[in-house]
Each structure stands twice: as C-alpha cells, then as structure tokens.
Specification:
- The chain contains 3 helices and 8 strands; from the N terminus they run E-E-E-H-H-E-E-H-E-E-E.
- With 132 residues, it is an alpha+beta fold.
- The radius of gyration is 16 Å and the shape is elongated.
- Strand 6 and strand 7 form a beta hairpin.
- The strands form 3 sheets. Strands 5-2-6-7 form a 4-stranded mixed sheet, with helices on one face.
Length: 132
C-alpha cells in the first residue's frame, strides 16, 4: 500500500546527521558543538541515571539538523525531538526519555531522515496527512 502526502511541497524536510556515541559525562560537562544550550536540559536526567545506575557508563549521540528550506528554530528542534521520541517510544518501550512520548498535534508536516549513527531511531519518520 503506497501512501501519498496530501501537500508534498508543504512542510519541513529535515535531515539529522548523528555523531558516533560519546561519553554523556563529556557532553554534560563540555556541552555540544551543535547546540550551545540544548544539552543543559539533559543534565538533570543524566544525574538521575548515574544515581540509579552507578556501575554504568552512559553514551549519547548528537544530531546536527539540516533543513531543505527555512531556518532551524527552537520550536522546530522541539517538534523534531518530540516526533522522534514519539516514533521511537512506540516501537520500543525501553527508552529512557519518555517525557515527550505522549505529545502530538504538531502544526506542520515533517519528513525526518536520520543519517549515520541513528540506532534506535528509524531511518525515516513522516508526520502529516496522507492519502491512499
């Protein structure tokens, strides 16, 4: 069954290039070269994980967003992050970040393509209205 987007030229086409997993401790202490502020909201979660699992080392991949058209904004990043968490959570119930899995109602259609080190994320995630 092939689905077609109702308005193929409307919406965001997002490519995310994921880095190799790096030490979460390094990201929390040094920040991210891709996002000067975004890593700060992960700091509390990281400390909770360390407290709950003291024998484990945590690694994280960082994503650099590119848009076919338009500008990367805080709202767009939040939408993309929420859509990816929603898609990944509903295909795997073992994710740590469950804070946005229930969020929906994004205002714009998205085609998100994950490149490079993307596990556990799917290669493509589409959000919008489709017809058959």
């Amino acid at each position: 069954m092939r689905l077609e987007r109702v308005a193929p030229d409307f919406g965001y086409r997002v490519q995310i290039s994921w880095s190799r997993p790096a030490s979460y401790d390094k990201i929390v202490s040094s920040g991210s070269p891709h996002d000067a502020e975004g890593w700060r909201d992960h700091r509390a979660r990281y400390y909770r994980m360390c407290h709950s699992h003291p024998r484990y080392t945590f690694r994280v991949s960082l994503g650099a967003i590119k848009l076919a058209h338009g500008h990367v904004t805080a709202r767009l990043v939040d939408d993309v992050e929420s859509i990816l968490i929603f898609a990944a959570y509903h295909s795997r119930d073992t994710l740590i970040n469950k804070s946005k899995w229930y969020k929906s109602g994004w205002k714009h259609p998205y085609v998100i393509t994950n490149l490079r080190y993307r596990a556990p994320l799917p290669r493509e995630v589409h959000h919008g209205v489709f017809i058959r």
